[in-house]
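Action item from last meeting closed. Structure (394 res):
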C-alpha cells in the first residue's frame, strides 16, 4: 500500500487531516511526523506517494524540510500548508519544488482537490517514465487509463468528433463540468493524432500562481530570478512535436493569458531572463469547466485568446445526461479497482445498477468511481441494492 506523510507539529490538526484524507483515499496508508527533522528521518527510511507539510515548525522548518527532502528524493511530491504564509512564501515553496501551497484555515475541498491532483500528476509522471523505457505493448496498457467507456449517443458524438479532429493540428477547447472526463478527451485526441509518438504535456493552469506561469510555460535561464539556479525548459518547449494540454484554462490570470496568446500567434516562446526566442511546434488542447462567454463578458478572459483556442469546441456532458453509460462504467471500474487492490472481481446485480442510475451524480464520473471503489471494499458479492443503500450516502 502506498503511503502519505503528514508533517505537522500540531497533533490535533495532524489527526484531523489524516481522518479526512483517509476517508477520501482509502487505498493509502498515512504516516505522521511532528516536525521537519522527524519528517526527514521518515523520508530517508521509507517511500511516500505524497508529503503534506506545515511550514512553521520547530527544529527544522517546512521550507528547509522541503529543500532537504528533495535532495534525498528528488521525485517526492509536496503540498505545503501554513497559517503564516503569504504569496512570497507560496512562490518560494513552488520554486523550491512543491506542487501546491494551501493557507490556513484550510479549505477542506481545496485540500482534497490539491492532494488528488498531486497524486494524479505523480502517477502520470511515473507512467511517462515507464513509456520512455518500455516497449509499445506497455504503452498500450498505460493508455487504457484513458479509455472512454460507454455507448450513449452523447459519448458516440464525442468519439466521432475526436476521430474527425485528431488527424488535424487544429486547436481544441474541451468544455464541461469537473469530473466528466475532459482529460480523457484530450488524451484520446493526442493518441489518435499524428503527434502520438511525441510527448503529451499537461499543465494545470489553476494550480500555478501568476508569478510562476511564464517560467512554467516558457522556461527560464539561470539567475533570471531568485531560486533560478539553472536553466529550465518550459512546458511549450518540452511539448515540441507533441501536444500541450492546458487544463483549467479559464482560471489563468489575464497577464498569463496575454503571454500565451503571443506564443500561439508566433509559435515562439522567450524563456524568462533571455532575449532569445525558441521556436516551438506544438498542438494546443485546452479545457475548462467555466462558461467562457460569461467569463469574457465579465472581463476575466480575453476574447481573442478564446477564439485562438476554440477552433474546435467539444462539450463533455455531465454523467446525469448520459446515465445509460453507468452500467458499463461500473463494470469497467469494478475490474480496474479489483486489479489495483489485488482482490477477486465483484459484480453488481441489476437492482444495484438501477439504484446507482437513480442517483444524481454531481461529482460526475469521478464520483461514480469513488462510489464503486467503496462498494467493492465494503459490499457483498454480488453487490446488491442493499449494499448501495448502506454504503452510498445520497
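Sequence:
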Amino acid at each position: 500500500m502506498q503511503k502519505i506523510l503528514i508533517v505537522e507539529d500540531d497533533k490535533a490538526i495532524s489527526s484531523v487531516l489524516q481522518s479526512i484524507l483517509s476517508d477520501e483515499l482509502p487505498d493509502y496508508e498515512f504516516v505522521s511526523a511532528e516536525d521537519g527533522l522527524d519528517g526527514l528521518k521518515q523520508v530517508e527510511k521509507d517511500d511516500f506517494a505524497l508529503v503534506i507539510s506545515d511550514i512553521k515548525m520547530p527544529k527544522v522548518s517546512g521550507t528547509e524540510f522541503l529543500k532537504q527532502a528533495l535532495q534525498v528524493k528528488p521525485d517526492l511530491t509536496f503540498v505545503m500548508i501554513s497559517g503564516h504564509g503569504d504569496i512570497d512564501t507560496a512562490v518560494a515553496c513552488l520554486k523550491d519544488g512543491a506542487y501546491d501551497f494551501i493557507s490556513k484555515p484550510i479549505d477542506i475541498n481545496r485540500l482534497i482537490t490539491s492532494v488528488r491532483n498531486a497524486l494524479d500528476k505523480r502517477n502520470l509522471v511515473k507512467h511517462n517514465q515507464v513509456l520512455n523505457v518500455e516497449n509499445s505493448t506497455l504503452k498500450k496498457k498505460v493508455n487504457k487509463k484513458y479509455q472512454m467507456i460507454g455507448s450513449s449517443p452523447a459519448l458516440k458524438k464525442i468519439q466521432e468528433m475526436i476521430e474527425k479532429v485528431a488527424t488535424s493540428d487544429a486547436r481544441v477547447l474541451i468544455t464541461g463540468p469537473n469530473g466528466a472526463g475532459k482529460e480523457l478527451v484530450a488524451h484520446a485526441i493526442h493518441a489518435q493524432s499524428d503527434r502520438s509518438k511525441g510527448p503529451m504535456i499537461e499543465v494545470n493552469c489553476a494550480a500555478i500562481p501568476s508569478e510562476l506561469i511564464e517560467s512554467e510555460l516558457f522556461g527560464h535561464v539561470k539567475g533570471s530570478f531568485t531560486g533560478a539556479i539553472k536553466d529550465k525548459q518550459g512546458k511549450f518547449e518540452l511539448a515540441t512535436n507533441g501536444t500541450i494540454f492546458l487544463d483549467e484554462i479559464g482560471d489563468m490570470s489575464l497577464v498569463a493569458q496575454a503571454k500565451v496568446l503571443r506564443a500561439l500567434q508566433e509559435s515562439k516562446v522567450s524563456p524568462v531572463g533571455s532575449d532569445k526566442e525558441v521556436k516551438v511546434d506544438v498542438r494546443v488542447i485546452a479545457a475548462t469547466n467555466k462558461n467562457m462567454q460569461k467569463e469574457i463578458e465579465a472581463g476575466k478572459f480575453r476574447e481573442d485568446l478564446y477564439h485562438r483556442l476554440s477552433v474546435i469546441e467539444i462539450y463533455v456532458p455531465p454523467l446525469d445526461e448520459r446515465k445509460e453509460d453507468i452500467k458499463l462504467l461500473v463494470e469497467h471500474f469494478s475490474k480496474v479497482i479489483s486489479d489495483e487492490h489485488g482482490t477477486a472481481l465483484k459484480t453488481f446485480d441489476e437492482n444495484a445498477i438501477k439504484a446507482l442510475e437513480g442517483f444524481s451524480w454531481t461529482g460526475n464520473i469521478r464520483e461514480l468511481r469513488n462510489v464503486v471503489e467503496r462498494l467493492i471494499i465494503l459490499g457483498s458479492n454480488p453487490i446488491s441494492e442493499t449494499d448501495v443503500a448502506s454504503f452510498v450516502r445520497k
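Note appended to the action item: The longest strand covers residues 283-288.
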